[in-house]
Queue: 4 jobs
Job 1
Amino acid sequence: MLIGINRILIERVIIMCRQNSCSCGTSLLVSIIIGVGVAVLFSLGILTNALVALWVSFGIGLAILLTLLFLIPLASTNLSPALKKCMCTYGKCLIAGSVGTVVTTLAALALELLIASTVLIIIFFLIGVALSFLIISLIQFLWCMINFDCCRQHDICR
């Protein structure tokens, strides 16, 4: 019974991804795995330039957030159906990832960067989750835009 349910779920995920509507759940699951890796690397002291990485992730999150503030009203107009479709599909994921990245990097920048700190290891886990979720959602958004425009003009996507 359980094997049949898993097979049905896997088939549904494959169908959703073929239609370019993979849910945020799949991205979040991959992001959690990446976040665990980032936290382990930080706790072992392998991330030597953690402060630089924090500022870079803060900049990426802020840039995407400001871009979304420009693109969301633009998507509400009927000028670009591709932007509207892709923003409706991936906009929530992009907002969650960018806000999460900005908030967690600000929390880490407010603390001293001590490797022995458990709180900082948890914050780096959250930064890893938020930033990887943002990057994966951005890739999905761009992929959606490319597929929408290319598939409408050429019949290569079927």
Job 2
Amino acid sequence: MLLFGISGACIAGVPLALMLMIQSFRTASLDRQLNHYRELEEQGLYLNVWMLKKDINAGEKVKRADLEKHRQWVSEKDSIKIADISQISGKAAVKALKKGTMIETEMFYPKTKKKLKNKS
């Protein structure tokens, strides 16, 4: 009877050992992939950014037609504030901007809100 128990444990132990080896290999593979992603993250990312198609003078309002979307490599070290098209369309430039400039939110004055008339 003891012989059947020992042989049963050995038969069950082989697949279990095999599963543990496979799991160990997968874990090591995932660790390598995670380290690779961390290296890429430190280097930067490709982002969609808006760039000027033409020169804009200080105080001139930018139109959607003046902008084009580009994919650009941006790293954390750049510390830029990427602008969304809805945040900049119709705003006036703080200073003169050259064609090909990557658009950031602080390059434009905030939109002014219309004053409400008091109904007295």
Job 3
Amino acid sequence: MSRAWKIIFTIAIIAFILGALCILAGVVTGGDMQRVQDVFSAAYNIEDKLNAIRGLMGISPLN
């Protein structure tokens, strides 16, 4: 079981590093962070998920 968790952890770290490199490449090539955030939010619908979590926790939504 320990070996399985090591493999899962390794894959997660690699995915995180690749994501960070993609964002870095976007910024280095002239993109701004607002554009990166807009694309990320549109693709994964982050605002609605965060608002749902805030609602479950009893925290008022930001918008």
Job 4
Amino acid sequence: MKKGSSKKRAAIAAIILLAAFLLDMAATKVVFDGVFDGYDLPAAYSEEDFDDILAADTEDFGVSIGKETLRTRLYKPQDTGDGSALVMLLPGMRAGFEDHLPLIAALLREGYCVFAIDPTGCRGSGGNSAVSFYRSVDDIDACLGFVEKAELWGCNALFLIGHSRGGYAVCRAVSSRHDITGVVSVSAPNSPMDAVLGSSSGFVGSALTYANLPALWLYQAIVCGPANVTASASSDVAASDVPVLVIHGAEDSVVPAFSRSLYSHRDDLEGGNAYFLLTSGDHTGVLYREDGTLQPEVFGNIIEFFELCFTGYQSE
């Protein structure tokens, strides 16, 4: 009798645990899908506000990725010469390329061509959802293949700039088959799991976040594949010889500089192909001042980095 009762209690306990886990998974899905919902709010800037953009030649392209099509735009200065370089720009969460028009205009002023991307589920790109944190890796890979087929439109070097989720994705690209001259990663988490843990801790606290860790990991694994949940930008940077400039704001509360960020792995990467800049500013303020203009010191460092990479590229 006691043996049967013990089995019954164990079965009931197992059913309760399974039901609790399924409820946890359902709640995780609702929150996760809400975080990565599609984004179509008005852009922070207008092209009409920037003379360098109005003077540029522009062309729109649709880049296919699975069932969706990414909206992209090529900007070329009118006086582009044979020595020009192409900069591919990938924004972060809930942002499209028009949120980075000050950076695009400044790059055009310096003579760079810019290939700007709306990520999956954002503004003009297809998809009702941004899918997952990892999706930007697929976005950048599709766009790299596209620009290579176009032979970089005559440009002879290719740089990548990414912010936040885009900053993670451009670092993952250095281990790909693509020929990349240099990468600038701004405000980037080190992995999708790092990003999700950081966001969740900010909403519900660390204790509840880590109690929910199995469901967080499993749902991400279902969405983007088990190997991609913890795939780190730092590992790809370390395994590559592509120069990478990592920029982070000291006041970043979204991705703290010294916790879960790519910048927090600087001790493991310095002395190789990675260079690090810690400056004032929060998650987006590291790039833009309150009036919407670029942070001049940060932009100056980006251009200096490009020039050094480009010189090395030409001398090979």
